[in-house]
TrEMBL record:
The chain crosses the membrane at residues 6-24, 36-60, 66-88, 100-118, 130-152, 164-183. It holds the Pfam family Mntp. The lineage of its organism: Bacteria, Bacillati, Bacillota, Clostridia, Eubacteriales. The keyword Zinc-finger does not apply. One of its GO terms (cellular component) is plasma membrane. Its main location: membrane. It is a multi-pass membrane protein. This is Putative manganese efflux pump MntP. Probably functions as a manganese efflux pump. Belongs to the MntP (TC 9.B.29) family. Keywords: Cell membrane, Ion transport, Manganese, Membrane, Transmembrane, Transmembrane helix, Transport.
């Protein structure tokens, strides 16, 4: 598989992380450390899931269809509902993120990378080539998610967006999750 093809796959896979990064990044309570950890989580799990999918693809290729999209979409919908619920609570308190949130969101935006590994990388015999291509996917996702957090920091300075950030982010995540579940 050539680098151009891998780049296009990486870009397509990173769009989930981009959307989630924008949605959660407009919350002013999210500190830079959290944004960095989310971007690293998204990049790592894009790499890991596509590598794992490539390694296990020849075994499970016939059994995996829409299930990953339904699971990932469901998780993103739940996160969206939680964000809307948090929007009704006191906005002045600091946002406390549990370490598990980084992992859950990282995996939920990377489930499609697992499927890509199954279908796109399962026929590559050279493990080094698969490893390098999946590292490339992870790096592209890290860069795209970081760009989304930078954009969201500017968007959060707009009063209307900052005031309703949790609601807008939650609604975007709910629609995004439903899209993943319905239009896989």
């Amino acid at each position: 598989m050539n680098l151009n093809y891998t780049f296009l796959i990486a870009l397509a896979l990173s769009l989930d992380a981009f959307g989630v990064s924008i949605s959660i990044g407009i919350n002013k309570a999210l500190i830079i450390k959290d944004k960095i950890l989310f971007a690293i989580s998204f990049g790592f799990f894009q790499f890991f899931c596509s590598l794992l999918g490539a390694c296990l693809g020849f075994i499970f290729n016939t059994y995996i269809t829409a299930i990953p999209n339904i699971i990932g979409g469901g998780i993103i919908v739940v996160v969206g509902v939680i964000m809307i619920k948090d929007g009704f609570e006191n906005k002045d308190k600091k946002l406390h993120l549990n370490k598990i949130v980084y992992i859950i969101l990282g995996i939920s935006v990377s489930i499609d990378a697992f499927v890509i590994g199954f279908t796109g990388f399962n026929n590559i015999i050279n493990f080094t080539e698969v490893f390098l291509q999946t590292i490339f996917i992870g790096l592209i996702t890290l860069i795209v998610a970081s760009m989304a957090f930078i954009i969201s920091s500017y968007l959060s300075k707009i009063n209307v967006i900052a005031k309703y950030a949790d609601f807008m982010g939650g609604i975007i995540l709910i629609f995004f999750g439903i899209k993943m579940m319905v239009f896989f």
